[in-house]
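Hi V.,

You were right to ask for the full record rather than a summary. Here it is.
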Amino acid sequence: MKPIYVIDGARTPFLKARNRPGPFAASDLATDAGRALLLRQPFEPPELDQVILGCAAPAPDEVNIGRVVALRMGCGHKVPGWTVMRNCASGMQAIDSAMDSMRTGRSELVLAGGVDALSRAPLLFSDAMVLWLSNWYSATTLGRRAALIAQFRLHYLAPVIGLMKGLTDPVVGLLMGQTAENLAWRFGITRAEMDAYSARSHQRVLAAQREGRFAGEVVVLYDRSGSAYPADDGVREDSTPENLARLKPFFDRKYGNVTAGNSSQVTDGAAWVVLATEEAVRKHGLKPRGRIVDTQWAALDPAQMGLGPVYAATPLLTRNRMDLADVDAWEINEAFAAQVIACLRAWESDDFCRDELGLAGALGAIDPDRLNVDGGAIALGHPVGASGARIVLHLLNVLERSGGRRGIAAICIGGGQGGAMLVERIG
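Predicted structure:
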């Protein structure tokens, strides 16, 4: 197929939600990261053919946030900007949508990425409160309004947490964390294994920060008061297996093992990549860092949604005549520790690979030293719309640093889907 090159990429620090609106709206995050990225390119922003932004929870005043951000970044009135949504893979979907446009000849140079400011997810009125307000505003007499006051109940004011509704599957009625509990039970994953995996994620992020591995990837943010946000702030030195073991289960308080500590963090952040065809590379004198070789989307039972990377990456491997061991680096988004461990066990299971994937037997094991080598969403956070773009960008950075040739970025998707991209380093 027509090659699609990755020229460059950048992201914001991932900022942990702290029970209040964060310092940046989603459009602020995407604009600041995009501006910094575009400033170091040899072309001007209006020379882009499209801006495509994934976002799972845009604010009411940023509904087509892709267009809002394109204008704010200085792309001009003539560069189309649009928004895609595939839950956790929205940022990866933006990249894939850009590739479709480029391979059909409609675009040559595209900025694609993802964003979410989950700390700003709304608090909603209950249906009872909305109905009461509707009756109040339609009441035309003092008597009717007096009757409504008498009917009012204080519990009408209890807010509905928009984020919790968004993280609940409407078909199976399960929170995403409850689907992780399903996988833990199915694959016999213990609490100790979840906490050990989570502690390792924090340790790897801390090591990457100390060694400057995110330096070329993360751009510093500044709020209106001049305060700087230079780094991901959800990682913790004290996230040891012993400390994580003290946390209580959150999603199944009586029988469960999935806690806030072995789950991804609620976070704000944005990530972008610049994509170009061969024609754009020649026209603008660009230097490709890598290329997207192939993409695969898959669907599965929403109650088992965390296995999405297995269902998506396996046909990707088969189509490209690769085994697990042929992949030099893996980025599997860490929605939950149980979810990542379940993916690894699924590939190691003869029964699963035969029954679910149609293979002759187990696909094998992934070398732990090739998986999420700089940590993942458990320590960094998971701004839903941005994570798919982040893992693609970081995968390329890992391949460049390690000298690896090919890597796979894979992600599970709420609603029972999975996405995977095969990335190849150039040079």
